[in-house]
């Protein structure tokens, strides 16, 4: 996909979370909404999304971030090498507008 599609990127994030959380994905989204971020707002609030990952998963959040970046990179053109997840999501949001 040459142009970032918000729905596709959110779908890629959800796919990666399911790989780590299996059936507990909904529990994660419940906690995410408790900090003020809905699924559809992940690209709008990347800092809060990443903070929630770290709050919930601690040191394991880095692995999840890396997997999300890899999934997004494999499905989209554009360099994400050496970028944080927050930077990748902000970049996608700018391109999607």
Q: Any overview of this molecule?
A:
The protein contains five helices and no strands. The protein is globular, with a radius of gyration of 12 Å. The chain is 67% helix and 0% strand. The two termini are 16 Å apart. The mean pLDDT is 85. It is mainly α and 97 residues long. 21% of the residues are buried. It comes from Nitrososphaera viennensis. InterPro entries: NitrOD5-like_sf (IPR044908). This is Nitrosopumilus output domain-containing protein.
Primary descriptors:
single chain, 97 residues, mainly alpha, 5 helices, 67% helix
Gist?
Helix content is 67%, strand content 0%.
Average pLDDT value?
85
**Global geometry:** globular
Order of helices and strands: HHHHH
Query: Strand content of the residues, in percent?
Result: under 5%
Question: What oligomeric state do the depicted chains represent?
Answer: single chain
InterPro entries: NitrOD5-like_sf
Protein name: Nitrosopumilus output domain-containing protein
Question: What is the topological layout?
Answer:
Blueprint: H1 6-21, H2 25-34, H3 46-57, H4 61-75, H5 85-96
Organism: Nitrososphaera viennensis
InterPro entries: NitrOD5-like_sf
Protein name: Nitrosopumilus output domain-containing protein
């Amino acid at each position: 996909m040459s142009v970032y599609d918000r729905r596709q990127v959110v779908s890629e994030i959800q796919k990666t979370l399911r790989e780590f959380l299996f059936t507990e994905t909904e529990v994660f989204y419940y906690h995410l909404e408790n900090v003020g971020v809905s699924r559809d707002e992940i690209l709008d609030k990347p800092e809060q999304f990443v903070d929630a990952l770290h709050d919930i998963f601690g040191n394991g959040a880095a692995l999840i971030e890396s997997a999300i970046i890899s999934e997004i990179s494999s499905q989209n053109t554009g360099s994400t090498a050496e970028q944080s997840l927050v930077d990748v999501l902000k970049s996608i949001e700018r391109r999607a507008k």
